[in-house]
């Protein structure tokens, strides 16, 4: 049982697609984690709950879907889909409290509407209805993947004296990259089957060649290099996903907005890397409001890689807007989950080919 001491509780206003306020959710901060009360979800979105204390189980019936919460567990089931939240569902002063990432990761699956949250403004905005109810959830944290033996190589960029880029407040790229990679490893470890290797698990320098031969020696199935960006212009912002392509040396401007250039996608590795790019892009657009781009570039640091792979520049450490996103305590978790999902979904698609 947790004591109910909330230093920074606040209200999240819920707005419909026409910006009309339709209610509010109390956000409780407890030991650095955010929770919302299930009773508030009922007040705003309707539905009914059934409690089965003997199984520590609460079932929410809403929008023809059954959502099952288990006390002291981060797992949540929506009909046949299972999800995992950052924090377990708990009781606070006799009320059921759910990890706040429920709002970003699961609510849209239940109500079939897009959900976007501005934590700074304290607003949750509902989009119009998602038409295709069978459409793939954008951020499904645990589909039934069968990926036994699928080998994932995660490469946290930089390390040691090579700090990478740096924000004006002293955030170091090398630390952020490693933080995300380690969280991804944790998330993957809860999913049986896949094998995960990090090129570095500590703050040490590695040459690009070391990283590539590490991945090649392991015969990885997929490679993700994690970086953060920097620009002299404070207005440059958002994520960038790079696919290594030597031909981009000849034609430099191959940035075709969000979609990787189809003309170059015939070759096996690039085609597969494009699939991975799309998986990541679709999910990041959901959690990075400053948007992003997919690009081809000759990436010396990925030369010689024998597996599909991309280099992700998550955000610009030089952009006030991007730093604002990064200041959200849930961001790194949401990002890590989104990247794990992208890779699992990619693996499933590759296996089906
Ligand atoms: Zn970097």
Report on this model:
By secondary structure, this protein is of the alpha/beta class. It has 2 domains: 120 residues, Copper Amine Oxidase, Chain A, domain 1, CATH 3.30.457.10; 212 residues, Aminopeptidase, CATH 3.40.630. Helices cover 27% and strands 30% of the residues. It has 8 helices and 18 strands. The strands form 3 sheets. Strands 9-10-3-2-1-12-11 form a 7-stranded mixed β-sheet. The protein has a 6-stranded mixed β-sheet with strand order 14-13-15-18-16-17. Strand 4 and strand 5 form a beta hairpin. Helix 4 crosses helix 8 and helix 6 runs antiparallel to helix 8. The radius of gyration is 21 Å and the shape is globular. The N terminus is likely disordered. The site of zinc ion (ZN) has 5 residues, from loops. The site of zinc ion has 5 residues, from loops.
Could you give a short description of this structure?
With 353 residues, this protein is of the alpha/beta class.
Order of helices and strands: EEEHEEEEEEEHHEEEHEHEEHEEHH
What would you report as the Rg, rounded to the nearest angstrom? 21 Å
Are there runs of 5+ residues with pLDDT below 50, and where? 1-6, 131-144, 249-266
The fourth-level CATH homologous superfamily of the largest domain is Zn-dependent exopeptidases
Name given to the CATH architecture of the largest domain: 3-Layer(aba) Sandwich
* Neighbour order of strands in the largest sheet: 9-10-3-2-1-12-11
């Amino acid at each position: 049982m947790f004591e109910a001491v909330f230093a920074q509780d606040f209200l999240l206003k819920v707005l419909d697609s026409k910006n009309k306020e339709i209610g509010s959710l109390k956000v409780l901060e407890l030991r650095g984690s955010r929770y919302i009360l299930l009773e508030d979800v009922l007040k705003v979105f309707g539905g009914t709950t059934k409690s089965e204390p003997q199984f520590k189980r609460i079932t929410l019936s809403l929008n023809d879907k059954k959502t099952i919460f288990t006390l002291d567990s981060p797992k949540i089931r929506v009909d046949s889909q299972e999800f995992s939240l950052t924090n377990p569902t708990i009781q606070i002063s006799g009320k059921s409290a759910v990890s706040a990432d429920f709002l970003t990761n699961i609510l849209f699956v239940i109500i079939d509407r897009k959900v976007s949250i501005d934590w700074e403004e304290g607003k949750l905005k509902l989009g119009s209805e998602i038409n295709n109810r069978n459409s793939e959830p954008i951020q499904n944290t645990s589909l039934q993947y069968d990926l036994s033996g699928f080998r994932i190589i995660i490469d946290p960029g930089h390390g040691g004296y090579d700090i990478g880029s740096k924000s004006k407040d002293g955030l170091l790229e090398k630390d952020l990259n490693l933080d995300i990679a380690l969280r991804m490893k944790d998330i993957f470890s809860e999913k049986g089957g896949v094998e995960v290797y990090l090129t570095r698990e500590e703050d040490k320098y590695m040459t690009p060649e070391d990283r590539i031969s590490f991945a090649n020696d392991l015969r990885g199935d997929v490679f993700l290099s994690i970086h953060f960006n920097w620009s002299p212009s404070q207005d440059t912002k958002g994520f960038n996903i790079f696919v290594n392509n030597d031909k981009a040396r000849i034609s430099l401007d191959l940035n075709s907005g969000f979609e990787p250039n189809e003309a170059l996608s015939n070759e096996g590795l690039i085609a597969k890397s494009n699939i991975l790019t799309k998986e990541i892009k679709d999910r990041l657009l959901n959690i990075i409001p400053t948007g992003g781009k997919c690009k081809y570039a000759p990436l010396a640091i990925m030369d010689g890689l024998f597996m599909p792979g991309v280099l992700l520049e998550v955000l610009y450490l030089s952009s006030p807007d991007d730093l604002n996103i990064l200041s959200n305590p849930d961001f790194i978790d949401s990002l890590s989950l989104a990247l794990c999902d992208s890779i699992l979904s990619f693996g499933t698609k590759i296996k089906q080919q």
